[in-house]
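[job 4471] stage=fold_predict status=RUNNING
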Amino acid sequence: MPAKFVLSKGRTGKYGFVLEAADGTTLAKSMSYATKAQAMSALRSVQRSGSTGEVDDRTAAAAKSAAKKSTAKKTAVKKTAKKATAKKPVAKKAGAKKTTAKATAKSAAKKAGAKKTAAKKAVAKRTTAAKKAVTKKVAATKAATKAATKAAGKRTTAKSTAKKNAAKKSTTQKTTARKTAAQKAAPKKTLAAKKSAARKPVAKKASAKAPARKSAAKRAPATKRAARKTATRRVAAKK
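[job 4471] inference complete, writing C-alpha cells
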C-alpha cells in the first residue's frame, strides 16, 4: 500500500496535511494554513514536485563544521588548563589572604560584639539607675502628699474642735446669762405678784360697794317721787 496525504483541521482552526506511510508513521508534515484552499494547493504542489525534486545533502558540511568546533574546544580547554595551573599559587596566596582577612574580621567582629555588649550593659545600668531615681522621687512625692494630707486633716480637726469649743462656750454663756436674767427678774416678779395680790381684795371691795351705790342711786328717785306724791296728797286733803 503506497503512502498517502492526510488533510486535517487543528484545534486552532487552521488546516494542514501529513504524508503517512503504509504502517501509519508520519513521513512529512506541512505548515498550518488559514484556509482549506491554501492547504489543498500546497498539497498538490508537493504531489507535483515530489517525484522530480533534487536532494541537497548538507550533512557533510555539518560534519566538517562539527570537527572544527571540537578541535577549537580542545585547544581552548588546554589553554584554560594552563591558565589554571599558573593561577593555582596565586589562588593559594589569595586563599591565605582570605583566611587571614576572615580571622581579622572575626576578631574585629568579636571586639565589636564585646563593645556592643558593654555598651548595652552600660545603658541597662543607666536605665536601672534612672528607674530607681524615678521610683525614689515617686516615693518621696507620695510621702510628702501623705504628710500634707495628714497636716491638713489635723488642721481641719483642730479648726472643727475650736469651732465646737467656741460654740459650747457661747451656749454656756447664753445659758448663764439667761439664768442670771431669770434670777434677777424673779424678785421683781414676786414683788409684782404681791402688789397684784394686795390690789385684788381692794378691787373686790370696790366692786362690792359699786352695786350698793348703784342700788341706792336707783332707790333715791323712787323715794323722791313717793315723797312728792304724799306731799301732794296732804295738800289736797287740807283743802
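[job 4471] summary: The chain has a mean pLDDT of 76.
[job 4471] exit 0
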